[in-house]
């Protein structure tokens, strides 16, 4: 028998539902999705469609045949969001079978193993992405150049801005950074990003992701605390490193490159895996920003956003324990 736990009054009825918020996130992802179609064409369509379809099917199958749940959660939109975010973290030339395997790990291991929506400790899309990165490093780090609309598996690849930054740090040669697209062009996704490997589907236009952020803030799907604290931390630390050594890229190039915007706006803000109160979210965001800078500059991988979020996901219960919102009616001792 399950216990019904009711908190103390007052009780307020809100209009928020899982479906409303999840489909709101889908809408917020549409600008970045359209930009990925524009840059990668058929490759983007195949990756995103495969990822979303596989996540939805696996969630339905696990609910029905393994967990024996009478009520399916497929229609709440969470599997669609997981599929889109997983697809946004993949290169546009990734084989279909690898995408399906990543979706299985994301939903089956990252989400349903913990009991489904609301119970998972780690962001499911990042669990799938990191599994693929460790299991298939060659395929996951082969980045097609943007603009090859009809190419898929045979698309020409190139070095990403993050790999250029990494090489500049290792060589200590600041002139290597001249190969980078301008920060402004990385912000709005102008065509000179085609001169390098454009990265994953969700990395080509920071402005499209910022539009999604504005929409989610307007709809009150998320608050500003986590994304702003991440971006501000990375900006400040990268600026200090750049001032100390010009071989480190300038902070604008750092925040507009790679998956930083995608992670800060859409994955670090996941309700289940992030702290509940605003002060906790600020601590959480600063931790992600710090770890991202450390991994990007001194770690084995050029990108550190995914690992930083997963590490801080593990600290979320601890943050919730020690940083709590003020209790309603609590008397503050002077």
Protein architecture, described:
The chain is mainly alpha-helical. Helix content is 57%, strand content 0%. It contains 14 helices and no strands. The protein has helices at residues 18-40, 42-66, 78-88, 96-109, 124-135, 137-140, 161-171, 183-188, 206-218, 225-244, 251-256, 260-267, 278-298, 305-322. Helix 2 (42-66) packs across helix 3 and helix 10 (225-244) runs parallel beside helix 13. The longest helix has 25 residues, at 42-66. It is globular, with a radius of gyration of 20 Å. The mean pLDDT is 86.
Q: Determine the mean pLDDT.
A: 86
Order of helices and strands: HHHHHHHHHHHHHH
Helix and strand content put the structural class at mainly alpha
Share in β-strands: under 5%
Described by the principal axes of the CA atoms, the overall outline is globular
Computed Rg = 20 Å
How many helices? The count is 14
N- to C-terminal distance: 44 Å
The description of the largest β-sheet is: none
* Helical percentage: 55-70%
Could you list the spans in which at least 5 consecutive residues all have pLDDT below 50? none
What is the tally of beta strands? 0
Spell out the key features of this protein.
mainly alpha; 14 helices; 334 residues; globular; single chain
Write the layout of secondary structure elements.
Layout: H1 18-40, H2 42-66, H3 78-88, H4 96-109, H5 124-135, H6 137-140, H7 161-171, H8 183-188, H9 206-218, H10 225-244, H11 251-256, H12 260-267, H13 278-298, H14 305-322
Helix pairs in contact: 1-2, 1-3, 1-9, 2-3, 2-4, 3-4, 3-5, 4-5, 5-14, 9-12, 10-12, 10-13, 13-14
